[in-house]
Amino acid sequence: MDIKDRIIEKAGELFFQYGIRNISMDELASSLGMSKRTIYENFKDKEDILKSLILKIKDERNEVIKEFLVKGLNVVEVFINVIEIQKKMPVSNAKFIQDIYKYYPNITKIMQEHIEKNNVFLQEFLLKGIEQGFIREDLNIKVTAFLVEESTYTYIRASYLEQLPFSFPELFYTMMINFVRGISTEKGIKIIDAHLAKKRVND
């Protein structure tokens, strides 16, 4: 891993856990075991690091979905695989999103553009699922795509709550797998139920 990637990865860990404003460049440098000068040789400022992080997350998400599609998985199988991967990702503190929208308008604009592109992709993806016979054809596609995108932030907002009787990954997984099951046809439900049955055996 090169220096830039190391900086982005560590910044992501700290930003997700504590928020962006709560992490100084000195703290980031100390966590990396490098000088602040080295960071500034690779990035203009904290916002530049944040922008690189957001773009990296977007690219990785797109690559994962593309890889599943190349493998020939159907829409429901892609949903299941993405949910499983997302469940294992580090949980982002709600302050991370708050800080972006409050202090970084340029990053907010980039994120809004990503959301709009994701919405278009999700609508096309859902239509493909309908064609395959795995997604219900009576759905309002625009509303469903919006809900898929929004539901991924529910577990972030839940970080405001204290002493939850379940983990954030459990919250995300239960919410998303049941959402996908709800928009699936009988054909799609059989795939999800088989996946859930296998998980019960393995767990």
Helix-strand layout with pairing:
Elements: H1 3-18, H2 25-32, H3 36-42, H4 46-70, H5 75-87, H6 94-103, H7 105-132, H8 141-151, H9 154-157, H10 168-183, H11 186-202
Characterization of this structure:
α1 (3-18) crosses α4 (46-70), α4 runs antiparallel to α5 (75-87) and α4 runs parallel beside α7 (105-132). The model has no long low-confidence stretch (mean pLDDT 91). By secondary structure, the chain is mostly helical. The chain has one domain (55-202): Tetracycline Repressor, domain 2 (Orthogonal Bundle). Helices cover 76% and strands 0% of the residues. It is elongated.
Task: Identify the notable features of this structure and list them briefly.
single chain; 203 residues; Tetracycline Repressor, domain 2
Briefly say what this structure is.
The protein contains 11 helices and no strands. It is mostly helical and 203 residues long.
Low-confidence stretches: none
CATH architecture descriptor name: Orthogonal Bundle
- The CATH class turns out to be Mainly Alpha
Strand element count: 0
- What proportion of the residues is helical, as a percent range? over 70%
Please report the number of helical segments.
Answer: 11
State the CATH topology.
Tetracycline Repressor, domain 2
| Coarse morphology | elongated
Query: How many domains in all?
Result: 1
> Radius of gyration, Cα only, in angstroms?
19 Å
- Terminal residue distance: 34 Å
Q: Could you give a short account of the major beta sheet?
A: none
**Could you report the average pLDDT, rounded to the nearest whole number?**
91
**What pattern of helices and strands is seen along the backbone?**
HHHHHHHHHHH
Say which CATH homologous superfamily is assigned.
Answer: Tetracycline Repressor, domain 2
Question: Beta-sheet strand percentage?
Answer: under 5%
